[in-house]
Design brief:
Shape: globular
Structural class: alpha/beta
Oligomer: single chain
Helix content: 40-55%
């Protein structure tokens, strides 16, 4: 097992290096990035979804006012975090599904988790984390098969079960709309309504809503999003 660790690190570096080559060759970051950032309301945080983005393009984003980066894959996150560790103003978000057996590798490196979806993962985080972690509960509003998330009708019970975990700081709810949805606003507003109900019923504060991606972020902002997870729209 020990002999595999250096190989994993080398593979990850090759992966990120290849991304840097491809995206720099294509000139990935949009020429209009400054204007785009200005178009987003001040109370909304852009979380750049950097799954397919190399570290050099991430630095371009950083120089244009985007310092919240969201990763989906543990191996790529670890490598990018190591390469960019000197940039202390970066805030690292994990926005993909986090498997319990991989949590140990990242849980004390990230600033925010957007995808808490099980009691088992909550328990693992509480055991491993050294300080309280800002955490969104991923909610399944549409109850899609083969998608992660706590069913919306179980959200109240789920929160009650994890409220005493000292290393989980609940900050809000996260969701994804149907792919190619015709009415994403209607889906997003359901999450906001659920958040409001939970706050009132449980007497808690859930100030943030992580919802909206490149195709539907405007609907998400209209419905009350505080965090939008944007990928393609930031690039050419």
């Amino acid at each position: 097992m020990e002999s595999l660790i250096p190989l994993m690190i080398i593979t990850s570096y090759i992966y990120v290096a290849s991304l840097n080559f491809v995206y720099n060759t294509l000139g990935m970051v949009s020429e209009d990035i400054k204007e785009f950032v200005k178009s987003i309301p001040n109370n909304v945080t852009i979380v750049a979804a950097t799954k397919y983005v190399g570290t050099e393009d991430m630095l371009i984003l950083l120089n244009n006012g985007i310092n919240n980066f969201g990763e989906n894959r543990v191996d790529a996150f670890i490598t990018k975090h190591e390469i960019l560790k000197e940039y202390k103003n970066i805030k690292w978000h994990f926005i993909g599904h986090l498997q319990r057996n991989k949590a140990k590798s990242v849980i004390n490196l990230i600033d925010c988790l957007h995808s808490l979806d099980s009691l088992e993962l909550a328990k693992k985080i509480d055991e491993l984390r050294s300080t309280p972690l800002d955490t969104f509960i991923e909610v399944s509003i549409n109850l899609e098969e083969n998608k992660n998330g706590v069913p919306y009708y179980e959200a109240e019970q789920f929160i009650q079960q994890i409220m005493n975990y000292k290393n989980i700081h609940l900050v809000g709810l996260m969701m994804m709309a149907y792919k190619d949805s015709r009415n994403p606003y209607d889906e997003f507003i359901k999450l906001k309504q659920l958040r409001d109900q939970l706050e009132n019923k449980l007497n808690i504060k859930l100030p943030y809503l992580s919802m909206g991606m490149s195709d539907d972020y405007l609907d998400a902002i209209k419905a009350g999003a505080t965090h939008v997870r944007l990928g393609r729209i930031l690039f050419k």
